[in-house]
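for the recovery benchmark. tokens below, seq after
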């Protein structure tokens, strides 16, 4: 069962990474676009603390590389998507390490709810094309 969960989590990570692979103007002066954005990999070969560090690093990189255009609504959404993905990645990490039914249920709920919210934000971006503004 643990192997099946790990396999599902790895597949979800790859799907989410593809959704984050769009680039425009990026947040922060030091946020140079990278050729390959970092991807979180939920692996039972790492301790929980390392998984959480990885999830935070990927989230931070995603937020710094969020395509920004100076329109508050747009910029909010583009930064919130990697933030929500960070919550998903952290939930995946705890699913690999806990058997506590309440925590597992909470983590599964976070994965489902945050993915729905990411999908809503992606749809919003598609329906609200914005012109780039000066900051």
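predicted aa per position
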């Amino acid at each position: 069962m643990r192997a099946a969960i790990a396999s599902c989590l790895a597949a979800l990570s790859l799907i989410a990474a593809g959704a984050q692979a769009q680039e425009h103007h990026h947040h922060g002066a030091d946020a140079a676009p990278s050729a390959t954005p970092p991807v979180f990999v939920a692996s039972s070969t790492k301790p929980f603390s390392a998984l959480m560090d990885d999830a935070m690093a990927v989230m931070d990189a995603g937020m710094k590389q969020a395509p920004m255009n100076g329109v508050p609504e747009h910029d909010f959404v583009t930064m919130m998507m990697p933030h929500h993905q960070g919550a998903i990645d952290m939930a995946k990490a705890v699913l690999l390490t806990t058997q506590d039914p309440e925590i597992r249920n909470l983590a599964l709920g976070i994965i489902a709810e945050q993915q729905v919210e990411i999908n809503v934000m992606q749809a919003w971006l598609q329906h609200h094309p914005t012109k780039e503004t000066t900051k």
